[in-house]
Amino acid sequence: MLILILYFFIFIVAVQILYYLGVFGKFAFAKVQKTTPKKIPISVIVCAKNEEENVANFIPLLAEQNYPDFEIVLIDDASSDNTLAIFEGFEKQYQNVRLVKVENNEAFWGNKKYALTLGIKAAKKEYLLFTDADCYPTSKEWITAMSSQFTMQKTIVLGYGKYEKIANSFLNKIIRFETLLTAIQYFSWAKIGHPYMGVGRNLAYKKEEFFNVNGFIEHMQIRSGDDDLFVNQAAKAKNTTVAYTPESVTLSKPKTTYKDWLIQKRRHVATANYYKSFDKFQLGLFYCSQLLFLILPIVLLAFQFQWIVVLCLIGLRYLVSWIIIGFSAGKLKEKDVVYWYPIIELVLIFAQINIFITNTFSKPVHWR
User: Fold this and answer.
1) Domain span at residue 137?
2) InterPro entries given for it (predicted)?
């Protein structure tokens, strides 16, 4: 029996190494990306609902972007606070701001996808660049960096949306590491030619891509997924690329309690259930292999069965994964979270189990 467990453990380690070297290595060892300004017309789209403090602070940063031809489409999604009033002030202050006012619709009440659809239709530029109301660019060259990755064939650009650092917060390290690992995954699969998701905090695409798949119509009833479900549907090897220069990054405010973070992750996991079959399979296989990599060696070491072999396999897997994550973190300027990698990985594995069990018995509450 123990010999079979050992063989299975060897298989699991092989699966993990295949993921890290064969897939994630595509991004980890990718060449340094260059920014070649394209100066194509861009509509920056921000959809906000009751975000008065964030939009007051962050929209001016968008207006200060160093780019020759762009507009900012501000969508007020039936806010009950002062968001609309602040947007109206920006519309008067900046000539390139376009305001879209969304009223509650009984059929699409509180649905961000409905509000975004109105904003996309109102956008005057051919290329669209999305970010969230609680996000801001790390550079005045953000639009330049993201738009520079567009080509005649590449009409969807996946960017990186990182989270602010909070000193002396282990939760913050968990959130930032999990965000880093997610980015490594969707960047790598995109480089392989199988893009499966993107994040609305930093995502760009040509307007025709939206209409080619009839917008969000196929998943309009799902409150979340205006970003990842759209990319899962529209992105292909030929039309998708990634942006990971330091100037192409956006920053967001992270959750500050474990409860809020778990609620957020429950929504993300629930949305992933609507991905294409292969994407669900490869994500599921990766997370299952992570869990089994934790469980199987405990059993083998408890019986001291081939413990030298087991320890060597553990060391090999951690060496490979640490190198891949380290190189990737270097590209995305997230090196500080890598030092906590083994501990954070354990936390994320148990969090994933908790989320899976919880979502099995109750649906997560969406923010809209």
Assistant:
1) 33-256
2) Glyco_trans_2-like (IPR001173), Nucleotide-diphossugar_trans (IPR029044)
Instruction: State residue 34's pLDDT score.
Output: 84
Task: Quick: pLDDT tens for 198-255.
Answer: 999 999 999 999 999 999 999 988 878 899 999 999 999 999 999 999 999 999 999 9
Record the pTM: 0.93
Residue 368 has pLDDT above 50, yes or no: no
Same domain, 188 and 302: no
- Within 10 Å of residue 319's Cβ, how many Cβ atoms? 12
Q: Does 295 share its domain with 219?
A: no
Q: State how many domains the chain has.
A: 2
